[in-house]
Design a protein that fits this description.
This protein has helices at about 5-25, 40-45, 60-70, 85, 90-100, 120-125, 125-135, 145-150, 150-160, 160-165, 185-200, 200-235; strands spanning about 100-105, 110-115. By secondary structure, it is mostly helical. It folds into three domains: about 1-30; about 40-200, Cytochrome Bc1 Complex, Chain D, domain 2; about 200-240. It has a two-stranded antiparallel ribbon with strand order 1-2. β1 (about 100-105) and β2 form a beta hairpin. The relative contact order is 0.12. It is elongated. Bound molecules: heme C. Heme C binds next to α8 and α9.
Length: about 240
């Protein structure tokens, strides 16, 4: 290899390394956490798939809390939760059957939860949504991917005390630690639930890691084989 070839090789190898370093280890676009959570709360949010004494997972308990406390204002369409007044409308079941499809996520099919396209839902729920807007000043957002957008620390602190994080917001404080000793635990379970909708369970992420390793190994092996083939070809053509 001549000097020019050497410079090119170093340049391309170097820029590839820098690219993946930025992507994987020092990603400037990655959400940076500024909101603190205590140890016990972290233990709940980190393990949405863990079973509790009740025999349900933390995520399932969080989903029940979400439906009871949040679905009067918020939908979470990715998991088939629609605002209460819409879900209670007898015509809604029919919309779910005709325009929706059962939720399928990370290898599990949830036959009793339906994903309905945004436009269909918003057209059907127009009056309910406008009613919320009239009383709250704005439409409470759909929370399907709020975990990814805001991160767990923000969600936990915001749900526990909306005014402290977003002064002037019309979202009410639903769990107050002063009156409910389990408030923090409940909020943590809701955040764990929102996390479980957006991130794969441990088994699925292990599978994805293995797939990633296999793909990269395949590229390396194919690259080496091609390199060898090129050498042979150059030899046959008389360049070596
Ligand atoms: C009375 C209606 C109401 C209820 C009940 C309610 N919210 Fe909200 N929520 C709102 C409104 C309105 C907003 C928009 C707030 C804003 O941007 O000022 C909001 C915003 C949010 C946001 C987004 C905050 C942001 O940074 O944009 C999250 C997350 C959220 N709510 C979670 C929840 C959860 C979880 C519950 C149940 C524990 C809940 N909400 C219950 C009305 C409600």
């Amino acid at each position: 290899m001549n000097t020019w070839g050497l410079i090119k090789t170093i340049f391309f190898a170097g820029s590839t390394l820098v690219f993946f370093f930025l992507l994987w280890f020092y990603n400037p676009f990655k959400h940076v956490e500024h909101y603190e959570v205590d140890e016990e709360v972290k233990a709940i949010i980190d393990n949405p798939w863990k079973k509790t004494e009740s025999g349900k997972t933390i995520a399932e308990e969080g989903r029940e809390l979400f439906i009871a406390s949040c679905s009067s204002c918020h939908s979470l369409r990715y998991d088939g939760i629609y605002i209460m007044s819409v879900a209670a409308n007898p015509k809604w079941k029919n919309i779910e059957k005709t325009s929706g499809r059962p939720v399928y996520r990370f290898g599990t099919l949830y036959k009793d939860r339906f994903f309905v396209p945004k436009d269909v839902y918003e057209a059907f729920a127009h009056d309910d949504i406008q009613g919320l807007k009239a009383s709250l000043g704005q439409v409470p957002p759909d929370l399907s991917s709020m975990y990814l957008a805001r991160g767990e620390g923000y969600l936990y602190q915001f749900i526990l005390n909306p005014q402290k994080v977003l002064p002037g917001t019309t979202m009410p404080q639903l769990f107050n630690p002063q009156f409910d000793p389990q408030a923090k635990e409940k909020v943590a379970k809701i955040v764990a639930y929102m996390k479980s909708v957006n991130t794969p369970p441990p088994k699925e992420s292990a599978k994805r890691t293995v797939m990633g390793v296999i793909v990269i190994a395949y590229f390396i092996v194919m690259g080496l084989l091609l390199w060898k083939y090129r050498e042979n070809l150059l030899k046959r053509l008389g360049y070596h």
